[in-house]
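Input.
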Amino acid sequence: MDPVVPVVLWLPAALAIGGAVLGLIADALDARPAALALMILGLTGAAVSGFATAPTEAPGIVFEMLAYGAGFSSLPALGYALAAFALIAGYRRYVGWDRGPAMAGLVVFGAVFGHALIAAADLLVLFVSLSGLAMVGYALVAGAGTRRSEESAIRYLVQGSVATGLTLYGIALVFGFGGGTTSYVSAAATLAMAESQPALLALGLILSAFAFKLGAFPFHSWAPDAYENADAPSVAFLSSAPKVAAVTALLIVVRGALFASDSFSVSGNLLAALGLGSLLFGSFGMLRQDSLARLLGYSGIAQVGYALLAIGAGIVGIQATIIFIVTYAIGACAAFVAIEAAGRVRPGWNGTLTTMGGLARRSPLLGASLVAIMLSLTGIPLFAGFWGKLYVFVALVESGSLWLALAAGVAAVVSFGGYGRVLKVAYFDPTDDDAPDVAEPQRGGAPLVVAVVLALVILGLGIVPLFTGVGSVFSVFGL
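Output.
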């Protein structure tokens, strides 16, 4: 008798896909509001079911080509939740846009590909998931419909094609030296005994593919352009859920599956180099940006550096990686939702820091949300991002990489120059009289509500661990 597929493996994805299919049917019947509502409902159901059915006390269990249990269920649920927040924030934009439901559908399918990437226990699933996420990214960037977004999407596509080629070469080497199997478990034992140089080449190629997907230095050049030129709700998704999926999958591949043996101890040095380069390049790059979205693009490069350093720290960095990427993803999603809200509060705002003076005075709720978001991304205490970075620093110290911990601390201080400038402009700069605002101030609408909700989540995740401990709060995301 064939084994029964665990419900935690298929139910969240089924709900999300079902909502997307029904939404696209509604769009074909010219019912855009219903189409968006169905997709949001499907994502919400996927998130709730993922968290509700995840057996967090059990380790991940491999079922054929996928894995389930613990973080393999709860982390995809976070991705579905962030995708739902992105669609809620962009509801008005998508409803008034011919291609809006199609764009929303891409977000849904991107969340499903992210789920598959996290749960992958086979190289074929890994490749299809990475490729699917990449195609969703290209389409979301190009879908903004401007000349600059289309140019950014083309550059993104060209670089992504190279990354896809690297992935295929790496998978081919693993397949060849791993005994002709694509299963993580089966290939790992044989791969550890293979000739060192070709096996290390496979490691390098697959790390390169993940570095591109994460926007890590030196595979980063697509990220600032894409973040700046795509519409904010789409980037709220792109900057968060796919990052959770890619970081978790990389953690599994390097620390729990294919390259976990001592034969691949060099992976720690490779990840340290990628992480340190990303930290320095992203943190200093932020200081020169005037576009808020582009600044957050460089912020994403820097933040990925912390995750890579945590993975490179070895076993002691596993919990730190999960805590960090969870807190960062929530902050990144909230930041781009806040950009969408700012566009509602100040219609005609061109997205630059120099023209957002006085934003907090016009919308105190949005200003307060920006405080929570920016301070969390910096890693200031009482906000969620503090715990993520603290655990990364602790993992680096415990692994004996004190100099990397010091470099990460310096990068965090430098990055505050970028995040702090956003708050300084919003609160203390005079209102730009030349900004093309309408006469009557606009309400922030759904984007503002979502930004406030996510800011409260950030604050809660920062304060509650002071009383209950970090483990009790973040254990649901553990692998």
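The CA atoms of residues 89 and 447 lie 4 Å apart.
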